[in-house]
Design brief:
mainly beta; about 45% strand; disordered N terminus; five-stranded antiparallel beta sheet
């Protein structure tokens, strides 16, 4: 595995001041946070996405246009994990050193973060490549729910539709949803009885009862995102969830927070528009936010939920 130390092109920055629209503790959501200021940890990227914590103090994230996956260690040091990511977007760990990547070049792959070895998992449905896999969530059986919208996809769309799929541990792929214009973020409730899908291009966020691994019932509107000015129904991008089932949805306004009943709790502002977010840190009480050219951290009172097989 080749690691490349980042050059001076990337900048480590101290805590953002209030002049940069930092969210301080006085603006926090009760019982959730933030408990301190927003910090710009690193900047100078093309477009950041897909933050994922490995549970050992390291956080990985993608820089899509540059086809890189970056690693930040527990000391905040930045390296390039790979510069051959196939334009990876969403990331999530399925085991201690197994990182699953949604590759916008058309596949899902697993990376061994100790050896740097990449293993292709699935590359298509019904003998056609995926459009451009975007984001994912992993259930207790190790199966992967993932979105496949049109962003960075070839035209005409290889699949003909934008969709949400489920890939089980054996690589069997099932198409679950095909009636959303641009399914983007995706998550499960902590008890895995609800699948959430967060489209771009519409304000309505969706939820679906989970009847079993890769089996869902008819969906309904979970919540309607707040909008800003003439932004219109720009919808959502990424999402993370805490142990209480509160959802943190990235949008043009920042991180919009909703409880499990779909009630709006507030917004956490970020200096750049956020694309995705995850909980990390030693106690899973730090939000890592990928926002355009930068990566930010936000200390929280809430604690992030851990997805994946029970044996983790």
């Amino acid at each position: 595995m080749r690691f490349h130390v980042i050059t001076s092109f990337f900048i480590t920055v101290a805590t953002i001041t209030s002049a940069c629209a930092a969210q301080d503790a006085s603006q926090s959501i009760e019982g959730i946070g933030p408990t301190g200021e927003v910090t710009k940890l690193h900047t100078g990227f093309a477009f950041t996405e897909g933050p994922a914590s490995d549970g050992e103090g390291n956080v990985y994230f993608t820089d899509i246009p540059n086809a890189r996956i970056h690693k930040i260690d527990s000391q905040g040091r930045l390296t390039v994990f790979t510069d051959q990511s196939r334009h990876a977007n969403g990331l999530m760990f399925r085991g201690p050193h197994e990182m699953i990547a949604c590759e916008m070049d058309g596949s899902l792959a697993a990376w061994n973060t100790q050896t740097g070895e990449r293993t292709l998992l699935v590359s298509g449905y019904q003998d056609k490549r995926f459009n451009a896999p975007n984001d994912l969530v992993i259930d207790q059986q190790g199966g992967i729910y993932f979105t496949d919208p049109h962003f960075r996809a070839p035209e005409p769309l290889p699949q003909g539709v934008t969709a949400v799929y489920y890939a089980d541990r054996d690589g069997k792929v099932t198409r679950l949803i095909e009636d959303l214009p641009a399914p983007n973020g995706v998550s499960l409730s902590p008890d895995e009885k609800t699948l959430y899908v967060f489209p771009s291009g519409q304000a309505e966020m969706m939820s679906y009862p989970v009847e079993g691994p890769g089996k869902i019932a008819e969906g309904k509107e979970f919540c309607r995102l707040r909008q800003q000015g003439d932004e219109g129904n720009s919808g959502a991008d990424g999402v993370t969830i805490d142990t209480q089932g509160n959802l943190y949805i990235t949008s043009g306004l920042g991180l919009q927070v909703y409880n499990p009943q779909g009630e709006y709790l507030g917004v956490i502002s970020v200096p750049e528009q956020p694309a995705n977010v995850t909980f990390g840190g030693p106690d899973r009480k730090t939000l890592y936010v990928t926002a355009r050219t930068s990566l930010y951290t936000i200390p929280m009172q809430a604690q992030g939920h851990v997805f994946g097989p029970r044996e983790q």
